[in-house]
Amino acid sequence: MRIATQTALASLFFSHLATSAYTPLDTYNSTNFFSAFTFFTAPDPTNGAVTYVDLPTAATSTLIATAPLASNAIYLSLDSTTPSTPKRNSVRLNSLKTYNTGLFILDLAHMPTGCGVWPAFWLLGTGATWPTNGEIDIIEGVNNQGNNSMTLHTTSGCRIQSEGFTGHLDTPDCDVNNATQGKNMGCGIRNPSPASFGAGFNAQGGGVVATEVTAQAISIWFWNRGQVPADVMGEGPDPAKWGTPVARYAGGCNISERFKNMQIVFDTTLCGDWAGETWAKGECAARAPTCEAFVRDNAGGLGEAYWLVNGVRVFEEGKVGRRGRRGV
After folding, report:
1. What is the largest CA-CA distance in the chain?
2. Residues 168-173: contacts with CB under 8 Å, at least 24 apart
3. Of 140, 212, 277, 304, catalytic
4. Phi/psi at 282 (nearest 5 deg)?
5. How much is the average pLDDT of 271-278?
6. Is 235 a catalytic residue?
7. Which residues pair with 21 in a beta bridge?
8. Which tens digits make up the pLDDT trace of 96-154?
9. C-alpha span between 302 and 295 (Å, rounded)
10. Which of 267, 47, 276, 247 is nearest to 142 (CA)?
11. How many angstroms from the chain centroid is the CA of residue 59?
């Protein structure tokens, strides 16, 4: 009996050592951020009233900064000083490295907000015509929106189930060409918290968003400042301890086939296919007849259109042994 007990305990011990856990892979912060990302300078694919500029232009125009100007954070903004211009200079940054799976943790102090503003933090599948290798919109919204929108964009044949998350399911089909949902809608889940996006998020001192991409599902957790579990900011984050995610994409979709070679992307555009198209339906319409007219002539109204990123950390699954060393 004693031998059997010892054998069972030993089996449990070695099983624990072989358990898959997350270990650090990449860290992007004020020490390396601008060398790890490339500046996108092509025309805005969403038809926004912006011109994406290169690193030298962004730096000399103070559209980007790190320490000491931005303390230890990364500052990303757009032109909010030119009195009148049809297109304002802005930045879109894509990571040089690509990923297929992993745990992506964004620590954010401030996100762009305001009438006409359309910011996004997302993962973009590369190496094929969009959206063959997928798109994961982690933070996105327009104008004075208060609830964060999370969306997947794919080709046909990817639908998600309506359970396993706390958010509100807006559209279940990830196919960008599903005519019943509207073009490019994808499968969207909305965060129920009014402090998950824009001014409400910034008023809380920002927060942390964690996105887990596995072969089985894509899950997103969100916490305002002061609510973040301790392990999230440590070297061994464990999603199993975080409770139900605000968004979980699983069911009728082969994640491994649909989401490949993904870059991490930050951008801020103005108006365009979403903020511009919905202008007349919101409170911002009282400020100008069109979105384009507002952003053209109201530089002062864009003062909150900036990111303040404390850092992005990427973790990979790996076997953890004694003292957290992989492969032991």
Report:
1. 84
2. 168/192
3. 140
4. -120, 180
5. 97
6. no
7. 318
8. 999 999 999 999 999 999 999 999 999 999 999 999 999 999 999 999 999 999 999 99
9. 8
10. 276
11. 23
Give the integer Cα–Cα distance in Å for 131 and 96.
19
Told to judge if 212 belongs to the known catalytic residues of this protein, a careful annotator would answer: no
Site of tokens 């950390």: 313
Closest CA to 134 of 96, 103, 172, 175: 175
Burial class of 18 by CB neighbour count within 10 A (0 to 12, 13 to 18, 19+): exposed
Q: Which amino acid is at 37?
A: F
237, 103 Cβ separation under 8 angstroms: yes
CB atoms within 10 A of CB 28: 21
Length of the chain: 328
With H, G, I as helix, E, B as strand and everything else as coil, classify residue 326: strand
Rounded Cα distance, 194 and 146, in Å: 5
256-293 core/surface letters (b: 16 or more CB in 10 A; e: else): eebbbebbbbbbbbbbbbbbbebbeeeebbeebeebbb
Stated pTM of the model: 0.91
Residue 317 has which token pair? Answer: 């699954």
- Residues 110, 307: Cα–Cα separation, whole Å: 5
Q: Which of 20-29, 202-211, 238-247 has the lowest mean pLDDT?
A: 20-29
